[in-house]
Amino acid sequence: MTEPDPGASATISWQELAAEVADELRAGPHPLDRSEAERTGRLIAMKASGADTADWPSISAEPATIRGVAAIDSMTARRLAGEPLQYVLAEWSFRYLDLFIDRRVLIPRPETEVVAGVAIAEAKRISPDDAAILAIDLGTGSGAIGLAVAAEHAGAEVWLTDASSDALAVARANIAGIGRAGSRVRVAQGYWFDALPAELAGRIGVVVANPPYIAEGEDLPPEVVDWEPAEALIAGPEGTEDLEHLVATSPAWLAAGGSLVLELAPHQAAVVADRARELFAEVAIEPDLAGRDRLLVARRPRLR
Q1: Which of 95, 66, 54, 61 is nearest to 4 (CA)?
Q2: Does residue 151 carry a pLDDT above 90?
Q3: Which of 228, 257, 238, 191 is nearest to 112 (CA)?
Q4: Both 182 and 41 in a single domain?
Q5: Would you place residue 304 in the very low, low, confident or very high pLDDT band (cuts 50, 70, 90)?
Q6: What is the pLDDT of residues 204-219, one digit of tens each?
Q7: Burial of 264 (0-12, 13-18, 19+ CB in 10 A)
Q8: Which residues, 6 or more positions from 86, have their beta carbon under 8 angstroms from its beta carbon?
Q9: Secondary structure (3-state) at 150
Q10: Are residues 244 and 280 located together in one domain of the fold?
Q11: Do residue 266 and residue 197 come from a single domain?
C-alpha cells in the first residue's frame, strides 16, 4: 500500500481553497466583486500549487499540500491588507512575457503593453526583417517594455536604463527569464540619457519610456500611492517635467528616421505633442485600449 503523502492536507482541494479565498476577498476590508474575487482566488491557489493556466484544470481537484495551504493563507492576508495582487504573486504577464515583479518597480499595466507594441512596431518599421537596430528603454523599472522589444524583434540590441539600482536588480532578474533574447540586452544605471555611453548618440533607432507623469498632489488610488514606488510615479509640480525633458533631449540621441515613444496621461497629450512638433518631423498621439490619448510617437526625419 502506498504511504500517504505527508505534504498533502488530504482534506481540501486547491479548487476549494480558491473558492474560500474568493469568499474572503468579497467580504474583506477592500471588497472585490464576484468575478474579480474568483479570479484572484484562482491565481493565488495556482501560485501556491505551482500550476500554470494549462495545468490548473487537471490539478485543481487534487488535495492541497500543507505547504500550499500556508502559502495561500499568507498571500490572502497580504491581499486583504490592500497589497496589489501583482506584488502578492511576485509575477505578472506582459504581452508574451512572464515577469518577476515586486515593490521596487511599477506594476506593468495594459496601457504600457500598448506602448511596448508601438515601440516594437516602430522598430520593425525602421528595421524590417529583423535587421539590426538599437533600442533604448529609459526608466525601465521591471524591464517590461525593453524586454518585450528584445523578445519580439530578433535584430534589436536593447539597453535598459534606470536611476534606481533596486529597479535594475528586478530588470536583471527578468532578463534571465526571457531566454536567448536576453543575450541582446544590456543594463545601465543613470538618469535618463546620462546612463548611456556617449558613442551611442545619433545611433539609436527607438527610444521608449514610461516616465513619471503624475503631478505632485494629484489624487491616486490607495493601492497605487501606498504600494508603488513614488519616484516612478511623481514627475514634479506639473507632471510633464520628465516628458518634456525626454522630448528635448532625444533628438541628439536618435538616428535619422528614429522614433521616440512615450507613455503619458491623456490630459498631457496636446501640450507634449506641441513641444515635440518643434523638434521632430512627424508627431502623433496614439490611443490606449480604452481609446484615451496615451502615447506620443515622434519621428526624426530620414536622411535624403
Answers
A1: 66
A2: yes
A3: 228
A4: no
A5: low
A6: 999 999 999 999 999 8
A7: buried
A8: 92, 101, 107, 108
A9: helix
A10: yes
A11: yes
